[in-house]
Amino acid sequence: MLKKESFKNRIDKIYNYKSIWISDLHLGTRGCQSELLLEFIKHTQSEKLYLVGDIVDGWALKNTWYWPQSHNDVIQKILKKARHGTRVFYLSGNHDEILRKFIPVNFGGVEIANQVIHETIDNKKYLVVHGDQFDGIIQCAKWLAILGSLTYDFLIYFNRYINFFRKKLGYEYWSLSKYLKFKVKNAVKFVSEFEKLVGNYARQHNVDGIICGHIHHANMQYIDNIHYINDGDWVESCTALVEHFDGRLELINWIEKRQELFTKNQDIEQLKIAS
User: Fold this and answer.
1) Environment class of residue 253 by beta-carbon count within 10 Å: exposed (0-12), middle (13-18) or buried (19+)?
2) What pLDDT sits at residue 168?
3) Are 14 and 44 spatial neighbours (Cβ–Cβ below 8 Å)?
C-alpha cells in the first residue's frame, strides 16, 4: 500500500501540460479527496487551469460547516497558481450556483463564468461548462436533487469506513457509489441521456467538442461527430482531463498515476543501491 509520507518525501516530478480540467471537488464535504487533490496540484503545471463547477459545495455547507485545513490549502494552491501565471477559469456548477449572481467576475486572478470556449493548440474548439443544465431533475425538481445529494453524501460517508478497513488490509481506494451507479439500470440510462443532451448543446454552438463534469463519470467519446468529454470528479474517481503540447487530450486517473510515479521511483532507488 502506498503511504502518503513516502510519496510526498520521495517524488519530485512535475507533469507539464498545456491545459488541465478538474471538476466536482466538493470542497466543504467529507467526501472530498483533498489530500490526493493537493498532490495532483503540486505535481502538475499548466498554462490554463479550468475548474469545471461544484468546486465548493454550497449545498453541504448550508447544512453543516466542514472546512478542514486541507480544503483551505487547495484554494490557496489554486490562487497561488493564478498569481504565478496560470490562467485559471472557474465555471459555476449547481452546488456553487451562488456565484452565478455575480458572473462575470474576476476573483484573485480567477476568471468566473458560466461557460467558456477553449481552443486547443491544433485549433479545435471545445465548449466548457459544468453540465447541470442538462440534468432534468435539477431543472424541474430541485428539492429532489437535494434529496439525492444527501443520499449520495451518506454513501460517501459509509464508503469511508469501507476504505478504512480496505486500507488496513493493503487494498487501494474503492468507490461504493460508483459501483452502485453502474449496476443500477436507471443510473446507466441517466448517464446516456445526459451525454446525448450535452452533445446536442455543443452542436448548437458550432464547436468541435464539449468538456463538462456534474455526473461524476469520467468519459471520452464521439457522439455524432461531437467530441464529448467528462473530466470526472475528486470524490470518487480522482480524475482530470489534460491537454498535451501536441493538442492531444487525455483523461488521467491520479490514483493510478501516483502509483506509477512511486513504482518508477522505487526502481530508480534500487538501481542506485545496486550500482
Assistant:
1) middle
2) 66
3) yes
Q: Tell me: the pLDDT tens digits for 227-265?
A: 999 999 999 899 999 999 999 999 999 999 988 777 766
Q: How confident is the model at residue 192 (pLDDT cuts 50, 70, 90)?
A: confident
Long-range contacts of 112-118 (CB under 8 A, 24+ apart): 113/89, 115/91, 116/50, 116/89, 116/91, 117/205, 117/207, 118/19, 118/48, 118/50, 118/211
Q: Which CATH superfamily is domain 17-274 in?
A: Metallo-dependent phosphatases (3.60.21.10)
What is the three-state SS of 2-58?
CCHHHHHHHCCCCEEEEEEEECCCCECCCCCCHHHHHHHHHCEEEEEEEEECCCECH
